């Protein structure tokens, strides 16, 4: 007589999200760029922060944990089928965020974003509306801008860098930012298109299977990496030229040094785009955002 028990492996279906998975869903590692861009906007406005620290702090929290966190939850919900191929251990495909909880979290954070944005006055609220709209347009049907390797990273770059920069300047100055602030923020937002393109390298297999035309899929990794490097470098070169034109010589030299380090890192990246992209994201981008603050200091005078 067999005494071996029949083994029944059943996976218990969760009713509630796992707290750690919920935190992973909103990806704290992605919050820094828009928070930094908002601070660049504050600095570039050239206005004393005295008496405005609460609004500066609130804007930084809004740009990072709230709006950016919301965008990550929305993206993971809309990408759950792609993630089941690329990264099945993510919170939603792994079942740690069960049912429609991913959608509920994204919607709740959308409402929270609008509530907090309203506290920042007309400019802050208007920017929040744009940021929320961009987040959903990037990920959700029928727009789903991320289907395009051109429109998706472009929208994401402007929303991550240009919009919070302009918002930070507008909130502390209680009015429209200067032409210099708007122009510089747009240049860095355009450059961020290249950063977002590099981010697509980790999802080539799933994007191809689901019909998403990211640049690494449509151009191939080598050409996409070269294009991303050009997109990152050219706007910074224009910024350097503008700083020289505006007589900010030392700041221009500082940004030149930041770009020179990036160019060296790009040479390493281009030898093995798929293998070196994570390294570049951890190293090269640091000098990109350092150049942002140097530039903000220059135009904030």
UniProtKB/TrEMBL annotation:
<keyword id="KW-0812">Transmembrane</keyword>
<feature type="transmembrane region" description="Helical">
    <location>
        <begin position="227"/>
        <end position="246"/>
    </location>
</feature>
<feature type="transmembrane region" description="Helical">
    <location>
        <begin position="21"/>
        <end position="47"/>
    </location>
</feature>
<dbReference type="GO" id="GO:0015995">
    <property type="term" value="P:chlorophyll biosynthetic process"/>
</dbReference>
<feature type="transmembrane region" description="Helical">
    <location>
        <begin position="53"/>
        <end position="71"/>
    </location>
</feature>
<feature type="transmembrane region" description="Helical">
    <location>
        <begin position="101"/>
        <end position="117"/>
    </location>
</feature>
<keyword id="KW-1003">Cell membrane</keyword>
<dbReference type="InterPro" id="IPR044878">
    <property type="entry name" value="UbiA_sf"/>
</dbReference>
<dbReference type="GO" id="GO:0016020">
    <property type="term" value="C:membrane"/>
</dbReference>
<protein>
    <submittedName>
        <fullName>Chlorophyll synthase</fullName>
    </submittedName>
</protein>
<dbReference type="InterPro" id="IPR006372">
    <property type="entry name" value="Chl_synth"/>
</dbReference>
<dbReference type="InterPro" id="IPR050475">
    <property type="entry name" value="Prenyltransferase_related"/>
</dbReference>
<dbReference type="InterPro" id="IPR000537">
    <property type="entry name" value="UbiA_prenyltransferase"/>
</dbReference>
<keyword id="KW-1133">Transmembrane helix</keyword>
<keyword id="KW-0472">Membrane</keyword>
<dbReference type="GO" id="GO:0016765">
    <property type="term" value="F:transferase activity, transferring alkyl or aryl (other than methyl) groups"/>
</dbReference>
<keyword id="KW-0149">Chlorophyll biosynthesis</keyword>
<feature type="transmembrane region" description="Helical">
    <location>
        <begin position="282"/>
        <end position="300"/>
    </location>
</feature>
<feature type="transmembrane region" description="Helical">
    <location>
        <begin position="252"/>
        <end position="270"/>
    </location>
</feature>
<dbReference type="Pfam" id="PF01040">
    <property type="entry name" value="UbiA"/>
</dbReference>
